[in-house]
Specification:
Blueprint: H1 15-36, H2 52-56, H3 60-68, E1 84-88, E2 92-94, E3 97-106, E4 113-122, E5 128-137, H4 141-151, E6 154-169, E7 172-188, E8 191-202
Antiparallel strand pairs: 1-3, 2-3, 3-4, 4-5, 5-6, 6-7, 7-8
């Protein structure tokens, strides 16, 4: 999700951030000059040191990895079982399937995070249908002081909401929708600000009969610019967008 526009943030009033932004812009300007001179060996440079993109994660690839590695989440690990309290919720129904609902809440921090959420299982085979959970990160004092020393702001709160929703095809469950919303609260000299970002990845269609591998040119690379990796779908154009007949 990309929103363009002007906005005000206390980060722009921070001297350390201003210096880093100026340094980054200087390097980008230098890179543009070199590219104009047909110098293709210049490496990309980014030294802002603090950005929402980095906090939000790595885009579609990272979200898909989350869906693939569901059982590696802390509330599924046997080693952390005693750190959670599990209870049964009211049974539910999705796509004609009866679901078992298991609610969970962490009794103490697990690697700086506390969790609360629900797991939805297919009653017939115990397959994971969906997982919805909230997490709050409790940064250790020394890390927060390090961030304040480098960036010049204090992180008051970091929390996020994750929703992983699967879909049933031929009695098997496949990824359908992945949503992650991140909220970051920072302070500086008495000023308090909340920054929010969200990632939404939706899979409209899955070909389970004659699947074809994705061409390497279309693989997403989280180290590259997002917009430059957007590819048009065959047969889809902008010709009829915002057109009234």
């Amino acid at each position: 999700q990309d929103t363009t526009g002007d906005f005000r943030t206390i980060l722009l009033d921070n001297k350390k951030v201003k210096k880093r932004i100026a340094k980054s812009e200087s390097k980008e300007s230098e890179q543009d000059d070199n590219e104009t001179s047909d110098n293709n060996d210049v490496e990309e440079y980014d030294d802002t040191g603090f950005n929402i993109e980095g906090i939000a994660g790595g885009g579609p690839q990272e979200l898909l990895e989350s869906a693939k590695s569901i059982i590696s989440l802390p509330f599924f690990k046997e080693a952390h079982r005693k750190k959670f309290e599990f209870t049964f919720g009211e049974n539910s129904v999705f796509q004609g399937k009866n679901l078992i609902v298991i609610n969970f809440v962490s009794k103490r921090k697990i690697e700086m995070e506390k969790y609360v959420g629900s797991i939805y299982l297919d009653y017939s085979n115990l397959a994971i249908v969906a997982i919805h959970f909230d997490s709050q990160i409790k940064l250790p004092f020394y890390i927060n002081m390090l961030v304040k020393g480098i960036v010049g702001v204090k992180i008051e709160d970091v929390s996020y909401t994750t929703k992983i929703q699967n879909q049933s095809l031929n009695d098997l469950w496949y990824p359908k929708e992945l949503i992650r919303e991140i909220q970051l609260q920072i302070s500086q000299k008495g000023a308090l600000e909340t920054l929010q970002t969200s990632q939404i990845f939706n899979i409209d269609y899955i070909n389970t009969t004659t699947p074809q591998p994705i061409l390497k040119d279309f693989w997403f690379d989280q180290s590259e610019d997002y917009l430059e990796q957007l590819k048009a779908k065959d047969g889809v154009s902008w010709d009829l967008i915002n057109v009234v007949e």
